[in-house]
Amino acid sequence: MVIEKAETAKTAGHILLEKIVEWTRQRSSLQLVLLSFAAGLLSALSFAPFYALPLLWISYPFLCLALRDQKKKSEAFAVAWWFGFGQFFMGFLWIANSFYLQDDVPGWMGYFAVGSLAGMLAIYSGLVGLVMNLFWRRFDRKRALLPSLLVFAGLWNLSEWARGHFFTGFPWNLSGYAWGFSDSMLQSASLWGIYGLGPVTMLFALAPLVFLALSGDRAKMFLAAGIYVLVFAGLFFFGEQRLQQETNYVEDVGLRLVQPNINQRDKWARDKRADNFLDYLAMSDRRGKDGITHIIWPETAVIYFLDQEPSRRYLIADMLGDDGVLLTGFPRREWDRDGMKIYNSFIAIDSSGQIGALHDKTHLVPFGEYIPAFFRVLLRAIGFERAVGGLDYSPGPGQLTQYIPGTPPFGVLVCYEIIFPGEVVDPQNRPDWLLNITNDAWYGTMTGPYQHFLQTRVRAIEEGLPVVRSAGTGISAVIDSYGRVIKSIDLQKRGVIDQMLPKKLVNLTYYARFGDIIFVIATLIIIMIGTVAARRWSSL
Q1: How does strand 485-489 pair with strand 495-502?
Q2: CA 367 – CA 172 distance, rounded (Å)
Q3: Are 214 and 158 in contact (CB under 8 A)?
Q4: Which of 77, 205, 227, 364 is the most buried if burial means most Cβ atoms within 10 Å?
Q5: How many Å apart are CA 515 and CA 193, to the nearest integer?
Q6: For residue 374, what are the CA distances in angstroms to 186, 210, 348, 363, 380?
Q7: Is there a contact between 463 and 511 (Cβ–Cβ < 8 Å)?
Q8: What is the pLDDT tens value at each position of the chain, 540 positions in all?
Q9: Sign of CA dihedral 36, 41, 43, 44
Q10: Cα within 13 Å of Cα(54), Cβ side
C-alpha cells in the first residue's frame, strides 16, 4: 500500500503537467495570443505598489508552455509579443494620466501612446519567443523541459538588459523590482544590480513547472527544494546582515526638503506662478529651526528663468539668511546661432543670490521632453500636428559631480535619469551622495510614482550612496546607502522634511565596481548550462 501510494504521488505531477500541456496545445492561435495577453496583464501586478508575486506562478509558466508547442517562428514570436504587450500596457497605464493634464492633445491619445510604447517594447519579449522556438526545434520538447526553463530565464533577463540600453533605453518594471516590498531581498542589488535579481525572479516564477516536471523523482524534488531554500534563504539572510548596519550622518549638513503638493495645472498656470513661488519661500523659512543648511525644491519647482532673474534670486537669498543654500530645479533657456534652446535644469543659489552650480538634464524622456525625428514626421503625417508642436528640450553634457559650499560633492539626477542602473554617477569623479529632483504630478496617484520611488531606492543600494529625493507632489524622501527610507512624505501630501544627510558607504559595492558584468556573465552561464543539459537529456 505504501509503495502504491508513492507511485501515485510520483505520477500525479506528470499527469497534471500533461493535462496542462494538452489543454494549451488544443487552443487556437487566437485563443493563445489572448491568453498570453491576459497572462502579461497578470504579471504586471507583481510590481509596485501591488507586489502580487503568486500571479507569477500562473503567468510565466503559461508563457513557457505556450511557447513549447508552437511550430512556426511567427506564432512563437506572436505569443511572446502579446505577453509583453499585456505586461507593458498594464505596467505603463500611469502614463496615460498625463495626457488629461494637457490642453493641446486629447486625453484619449494617452492610451494610444501607452499602447504604442507597449507594442514597441514587446518586440524584446517577442524575440525571446522566437529564440525559444529555435531552441525547441533542436531538442526533445518533453525531455528537455527543465533545461529549457534555464534558457528561457536567461534570455528573458538579457532582453530586459537590452530594453534598458538600446534606443535610449527604458528599464522600467524590470523583473527584479518585484521584490521591492522587501528591503532584505533588494540588498543583493549591491552585488549584481537590479538586473541580477531578474534570474532570481524567474526562478521563483517558474517553480510550479520545476516541481511538476520533477514530481516523478523524489531525490531530484528534494534537490530542487534544497536549491530553492539555499537561494532565497541565502539572499534574505545576506540582506538582513547588511541591514544590521546603522546609518551614519554627515556632520553640519542639515537638509530641508519642501513638498508643496501643487497640482500640475496650477504649477504651470501663469496667474499662479507668483503665488507658487511665495509658497515655496514660506515653506522654506528656517527661522526657529537650527541646523538646516540646505533647502531643496523639486524639478521645475518655480517656472522662472532663475539664472537670468537676479531679483528673484535675491528674494531667495533673503529667505536663506546668512549661510543657507537653495538647490532647486528650474527651466533654463539660452540662445545660439540656431535660435533658442531650453533645458530642464538644476541650480544652486547661495545666501548672496549667486549661482553656485548648474546642471542640465541629459537623459530626456522620449515623447515627453522631445519627439524623436522619425515619430515627429509620422505624427504630422497622420494629422497630429498639435502633438508635435512646441520646442523640444535640449540634452545636457552628462553626469558631472557638483561642488558647492557646506556639503560633500553630489550628483544631480533630474526625474527619469534615476531609473538607469549603472548610469547615475560620474564614473571619473564619484560623488558622495545623489540628489534626485522630480515632478511626478503628471501621473496623479497611479502606479507610476510608486514604481519611480522604488527605482530611486534601488539606485542607493547599487551604488552604496544615499539619495535625497525631492518631488513636487511626492514621494519625497531621504534614503540611506542601504536603500532604507529615513524620512518621507507620502504621495499627494504637503509638508517638509528636516533631516541630516546620511553618509555614503566606506567601501564601493561590487555593482559600483563592476557594473553589469557579473549579471551578464552569470546569465550567459545559465543559458549555456541549460543548452548543454538539453542536448544531453534529449539524447537519453
Answers
A1: unpaired
A2: 16
A3: no
A4: 205
A5: 7
A6: 38, 45, 36, 18, 10
A7: yes
A8: 333 343 444 556 667 777 777 777 777 788 889 999 999 999 999 999 999 999 999 999 999 999 988 888 999 999 999 999 999 999 999 998 877 777 667 767 788 889 999 999 999 999 999 999 999 888 877 788 889 999 999 999 999 999 999 988 999 999 999 999 999 999 999 999 999 999 999 999 999 999 988 887 788 889 999 999 999 999 999 999 999 999 999 999 999 999 999 988 888 888 899 999 999 999 998 776 778 999 999 999 988 999 999 999 999 999 998 889 999 999 999 988 878 899 999 999 999 999 999 999 998 887 777 776 556 555 554 444 444 445 788 888 889 999 998 999 999 999 989 999 999 999 999 999 999 999 988 888 889 999 999 999 999 999 999 999 999 998 999 999 999 999 999 999 999 999 999 999 999 999 999 999 999 999 999 999 999 999 988 776
A9: positive
A10: 0
pTM: 0.92
Which residues, at least 6 apart from 379, have a Cβ–Cβ distance to it below 8 Å?
A: 371, 385, 387, 388
The 3 state secondary structure assigned to 335-396 is: EECCEEEEEEEEEEEECCCCEEEEEECCCCCECCCECCHHHHHHHHHCCCHHHHCCCCECCC
Cell representation of residue 296: 531643496
Q: 443 with 449: CB under 8 angstroms?
A: yes
Largest CA distance in the chain: 92
Residue 13 to residue 4: CA distance in whole angstroms: 15
- Cα-only R_g, the chain: 26
Report the CATH superfamily, name and number, of domain 249-362+397-502.
Carbon-nitrogen hydrolase (3.60.110.10)
DSSP state of 416: G
DSSP assignment of 208-221 equals HHHHHHTTT-HHHH
Catalytic residues: 299, 361, 415
* Residue given cell 546620511 in the structure block: 502
User: What is the distance between the alpha carbons of residues 313 and 417, in angstroms, rounded to a whole number?
Assistant: 27
Q: Which three cell numbers stand for residue 143?
A: 525531455
CB-based contact 469:296 (threshold 8 Å): no
C-alpha span between 156 and 245 (Å, rounded): 34
Instruction: Specify the 3-state DSSP secondary structure of 469.
Output: strand
514660506: which residue's cell? 282
